[in-house]
Amino acid sequence: MMTHVRGGGEGKMAAPMEVAVCTDSAAQLWSCVVWELHSGANLLTYRGGQAGPRGLALLNGEYLLAAQLGKNYISAWELQRKDQLQQKIMCPGPVTCLTTSPNGLYVLAGIAESIYLWEVSTGNLLVILSRHYQDVSCLQFTGDSSHFVSGGKDCLVLAWSLCSVLQADPSRTPGPRHVWSRHTLPITDLHCGFGGPLARVATASLDQTVKLWEISSGELLLSVLFDVSIMAVTMDLAEHHMFCGGSDGSIFQVDLCTWPGQREKSFQPEQDHGKVFRGHRNQVTCLSVSTDGSVLLSGSHDETVRLWDVQSQQCLRTVALKGPVTNACIMLAPISMLSSDFRPSLPLPHFNKHLLGTEHGDEPRHGGLTLRLGLHQQNVLGGQDQLRIRVAELEDEVRNLRKINRDLFDFSTRIITRPAKGCGPALTCCPPVACHVVLVLCRV
Q1: Among candidate residues 293, 295, 191, 209, the one with its CA nearest the CA of residue 246
Q2: pTM of this prediction?
Q3: Separation CA 292–CA 238 (nearest Å)
Q4: pLDDT digits (tens, 9 = 90+) for 352-386
Q5: Burial zone of 141 (CB within 10 Å; 0-12 exposed, 13-18 middle, 19+ buried)
Q6: Distance between CA 138 and CA 190 in Å, rounded?
Q7: Which residues, including other chains, have CB under 8 Å from residue 179's CB and lie 6 or more apart?
Q8: 200-205 and 187-192 beta bridge pairing
Q9: Is the pLDDT score of 6 beyond 60?
Q10: Distance from chain centroid for Cα 24
Q11: Which long-range contacts (CB under 8 A, 24 or more apart) does 314-317 make?
Q12: CA torsion angle 216 235 56 313 (round to 10)
């Protein structure tokens, strides 16, 4: 990726510029703001919509994508588009999380309990993965784009091989390479380290633990227990430190190189290997570390973004936003972000909402040949339009039934756990209909 450089004359190698990209849920003045990391100077703003948590991604150094909070579309801006026009990538439902492959070829989105994978060059929806049982909460690719990892409210973390997903038999549902089920409450965040298929993955959960996994073997390397739920996690590039954002506003630093040999351990802030950053007044929602590992960026529900010195745990800068922070990340600024003459190499195509692209306005494709070149599927099997339409209708019906089931489950849970006044256990005071719902769900 090309980057903007600072200072120096001809023949001098200058350092790349690091920027902070932030969004909040209010989006009163702008949807997204970009500021220079060390000076704090505002560089760019993008307007139109509210970006949801884990819903911001850079595509091929040319476009900024933002999954809109509670909406069924993704906004896309050219990085240097002065007229602020946004393109909309329409999706089958509200997008809960979003990421792009570092090589710029694919877009991944979590929609309810499914993962949607698009090919950027054609806009084709290549596959829908439905192995989570509740909403997908976070997605991330490895640095070499060979694998991606998903976390969900069903407490599961799934590691997927991109090659296996794309080359799977169309008649069979692709499966993940690893299923990590050691968390006991919903997954809140994950971070893929350096190394591609050899990378380590950190996962955070409401169960007050952060766990470190190895993609190559699937083994659990480390589990750290905290006193509060962990809402965000990241590591520095060298993976010397793991930073964990708590629901109480604290940020915990786990020094991986000096951590004792136990696989499971409780975090003790008073000991040498544990450090705490204090300053946020509400839960930490996002964390990011600079390239050299010296600076930590954090966002919080207290409507502030803070910049920290890692060595001293001192806050260097506080930026007040207009609402709870949904995304805050540090990145090397692509040249397209700061060059007024830059335009994308290719326009974004129309992204299909359905597999095979024959329903709800997607362009139909003709021909009876399936051709795979490497990891790219160029044409799809034709001649079965009615069957595909019927399959799309059944998929919509299944999604509606799943939503009804989730609503019933949430309703029965509230009834069971709601304390009753002047009587015994809450279940004995439930209306007959509610009890019937509970019994039916139990039988299922």
Answers
A1: 209
A2: 0.78
A3: 9
A4: 988 864 454 454 444 333 334 444 433 333 445 66
A5: buried
A6: 7
A7: 131, 156, 157, 158
A8: antiparallel
A9: no
A10: 15
A11: 315/277, 315/279, 317/40
A12: 170
Closest CA to 179 of 158, 148, 151, 210: 158
Q: In whole angstroms, give the CA distance from residue 31 to residue 69.
A: 11
Say how far apart CA 110 and CA 93 lie, in whole Å: 9
Whether the Cβ atoms of residue 181 and residue 152 lie closer than 8 Å to each other? no
Euclidean distance between CA atoms 134 and 112, whole angstroms: 7
Tell which residue, 397, 429, 400, has the closest CA to residue 415: 429
- Residue 18 scores a pLDDT above 90: yes
Tracing tokens 């510029």 back to the chain, one arrives at 17
Q: Which residues contact residue 382 at a Cβ distance below 8 angstroms, ignoring those fewer than 6 apart?
A: 365, 366, 367, 368
Strand partners, 340: none
CB 3 within 8 Å of CB 335: yes
Rounded CA-CA distance 91/77 in Å is 17
**Chain segment 261-300, per-residue pLDDT in tens:** 778 889 887 765 568 999 999 999 999 999 999 999 999 9
Across 5-14, 86-95, 147-156, which has the greatest mean pLDDT? Answer: 147-156
Per this entry, what is the length of the chain? 444
385-417 vs 432-443: helix axis angle to the nearest 10?
120
Alpha-carbon distances of 93 from 67, 73, 112, rounded to whole Å: 11, 8, 7
CA distance 167 to 372: 8
**Using H for helix, E for strand and C for coil, what is the string for the chain?**
CCECECCCCCCCCCCECEEEEEEECCCCCCCEEEEECCCCCEEEEECCCCEEEEEEEEECCCEEEEEECCCCEEEEEECCCCCCCCEEEECCCCEEEEEECCCCCEEEEEECCEEEEEECCCCCEEEEECCCCCCEEEEEECCCCCEEEEEECCCCEEEEEHHHHHCCCCCCCCCCCEEECCCCCCEEEEEECCCHHHCEEEEEECCCEEEEEECCCCCEEEEEECCCCEEEEEECCCCCEEEEEECCCCEEEEECCCCCCCCEEECCCCCCCEEEECCCCCCEEEEEECCCCCEEEEEECCCEEEEEECCCCEEEEEEECCCCEEEEEEEECEHHHHCCCCCCCCCCCCCCCCCCCCCCCCCCCCCCCCEEECCEEEECCCCCHHHHHHHHHHHHHHHHHHHHHHHHHHHHHHHHHCCCCCCCCHHHHCCHHHHHHHHHHHHC
pLDDT for position 387: 73
- How many Å is the Cα radius of gyration of the chain? 23
Please give the average per-residue pLDDT across 195-199, as a whole number.
Answer: 94
pLDDT score recorded for residue 15: 57
